[in-house]
From TrEMBL:
Database matches in InterPro entries: AcuA (IPR024699)
Keywords: Acyltransferase, Transferase
Any one GO BP annotation for this protein: acetoin catabolic process
UniProt keyword Transferase present: yes
Gene Ontology molecular function, alphabetical: acetoin dehydrogenase (NAD+) activity; acyltransferase activity
Presence of the UniProt keyword Nucleotide-binding in the record: no
EC number: 2.3.1.-
The protein's name in its UniProt record: Acetoin utilization protein AcuA
Amino acid sequence: MKHSQTYNMKELKTAVGAIVIEGPVSSKTLQQLDFHEQLTAFRPPEQQKEALIEIANLPEGRIIIARHHHTIIGYVTFLYPDPLERWSEGNMENLIELGAIEVAAPFRSYAVGKNLLIVSMMDDAMEDYIVITTEYYWHWDLKGTGLNVWDYRKIMEKMMNKGGLTWFATDDPEISSHPANCLMVRIGSRVPQESIQEFDSLRFRNRFMY
């Protein structure tokens, strides 16, 4: 069964014309749009477009896109955590992961990433979810931006804050493997206390190991 979703849209007026931020979009919409050739952070553009189409077809999957004319120039994905990650072990129906956010390099000066997150959280259904994102420095475009890990981390945190996500501590080994990595979380206003406690137990496995 498809989870509750409400479509939202915002238009950014920029020097290169209107950029439309919209979603959640369907797999059919994604198939009909072109995909910018510089969206290469995770895999080649054609493969990444196919991955987005697959996520859009998942019951919990949400894709918010940034579109310049007929071309997707940015996106953010939401889906259940990878089965290999600790965050999936509680089988929590109200925990979803911001799996990826990417903006094509020529459009990064137009606050597209920030607005992708703002539009994502316009949907009232997000108040029923704990939204997490795991930030790993090896996914960051340090070479393309010329930033060091700490400056890039500040930019990522500031952007995630626009979507209501804030830093949370965890003892997850992969996140703890480098001090620039981090877990960021947004807890919806209707998430019950027992879900928050369950999430806390996922964040800290070794709390009582001394």
